[in-house]
Amino acid sequence: MQLILDTANLDQIKLANEWFRISGVTTNPTIIARENTDFLQRLYDIKNIIGNKQLHVQVAGTSWQEMVADGLALVEKVDRDIFVKIPSNFEGYRAMKELKEKDIHVTATVVYSPEQAYIDGLAGADYIAVYYNKMYNSNMDPAKTVREITQLFEMNHISSKVLGASYRNTRQVIDTFLAGARAVTLPYPILEEFCKNACVSAAVEGFANDWRKVYGKKTVKDLLA
């Protein structure tokens, strides 16, 4: 199971990279624009933080020619191993095929159906970004969609990985993995929610209080010295 951070905020990326075993970072035009900073420099800064971990960056072009040109520029200017995010639509399918023929990593994005994922997989996309919460908000069944895509890939020996994206809460993330996805990308606030549990906080505080009654402020290391 891969955990990827969905942000272009450097403070969040630094924190997540230090505290959690993340596999990389995903961005999109909205996320990048939100930072209101130099585009190329921000990508350099992210790479400096995460090192050899994955960086997924979406194209801005809308025709397949523009998408391919954007992808080639990203590979040339940022990193040869960058994952170029391509929208899963008619123009995108051609762009994915062209980029994969040049041995460039591709992430298909804005995926809502097994039909899209099927074409993405045939085009050779490395990851298929399925928009979980956006499907839920549209009265679709995201867990069923993820299951169908993973089954379709397994039956046809397609190596593309389902990458869950677009989340409202941690339960949706877990449901994505249980449905067969091999990776998720989520914003830092959702990642942070995995560490919050009132029952856990109460139990830890109880342990600390009981310890202090007998040993005061001494730590286990102090007592073993």
Task: Please give the structural blueprint.
Elements: E1 2-6, H1 10-19, E2 24-26, H2 29-35, H3 39-50, E3 54-58, H4 64-77, E4 83-87, H5 90-101, E5 105-111, H6 114-123, E6 127-131, H7 132-137, H8 142-155, E7 161-165, H9 170-178, E8 183-186, H10 188-193, H11 198-215, H12 220-224
Parallel strand pairs: 1-2, 1-8, 2-3, 3-4, 4-5, 5-6, 6-7, 7-8
Helix pairs in contact: 1-3, 4-5, 5-6, 6-8
Number of strands: 8
Which strand order does the major sheet show? Answer: 1-2-3-4-5-6-7-8
Radius of gyration: 21 Å
Structural class: alpha/beta
Helix content bin: 40-55%
Looking at CATH, the homologous superfamily is: Aldolase class I
Q: What order do the helices and strands follow?
A: EHEHHEHEHEHEHHEHEHHH
CATH third-level topology: TIM Barrel
Number of distinct helices: 12
CATH C-level category: Alpha Beta
Task: Describe the oligomeric state of these chains in a short phrase.
Answer: single chain
Mean pLDDT: 97
Give an overview of the whole structure:
The longest helix is centred in the last third of the chain and has 18 residues, at 198-215. The model has no long low-confidence stretch (mean pLDDT 97). The protein has 225 residues and is of the alpha/beta class. An eight-stranded parallel β-barrel has the order 1-2-3-4-5-6-7-8, surrounded by seven helices. It is built from twelve helices and eight strands. The chain has a single domain, classed as Aldolase class I (TIM Barrel, Alpha-Beta Barrel), CATH 3.20.20. Strand 1 (2-6), helix 1 (10-19) and strand 2 form a beta-alpha-beta unit. InterPro entries: Aldolase_TIM, TAL/FSA, Transaldolase_AS, TSA/FSA_arc/bac. Keywords: Lyase, Schiff base. It is an enzyme of class 4 (lyase). One of its GO terms (biological process) is carbohydrate metabolic process. GO terms for molecular function: aldehyde-lyase activity.
